[in-house]
Amino acid sequence: MSSEHTSTPGQDIAHLSYEQAIEELDALIAKLERGSVPLNDAIAAYERGAQLIAHCNALLEATEQKITALTSGGTEVPFTPEQTDHPVQQGAVSDNGTLFPERDEE
Fold first, then answer.
1. CA dist 88 to 28, 54, 81, Å?
2. Residue range 47-68: average pLDDT?
3. Where are the domains of the chain?
4. 3, 42, 69, 83: least CB-packed within 10 angstroms?
């Protein structure tokens, strides 16, 4: 891995790239999963992980806004189910386990 994508634990999160933050988060998760971390260190790692996640989410949101501005001339076009090419099959099961109502044929 190149040095531009490595981060030092404790480094200011605001200066981390998305890739650096994910790399550090993965290392923290692996460390915590091993279970050999003293409680105070585990709490500090958890707090750092939460900060890394928030940073990654902020970077993704900023990127999404840039893409929206580039692709729609700056006006966001909200997604609506009517815009899909594949309508929901009648009687199909949704993600939460409920049935989509079957429609009467006209």
1. 41, 34, 9
2. 94
3. 3-77
4. 3
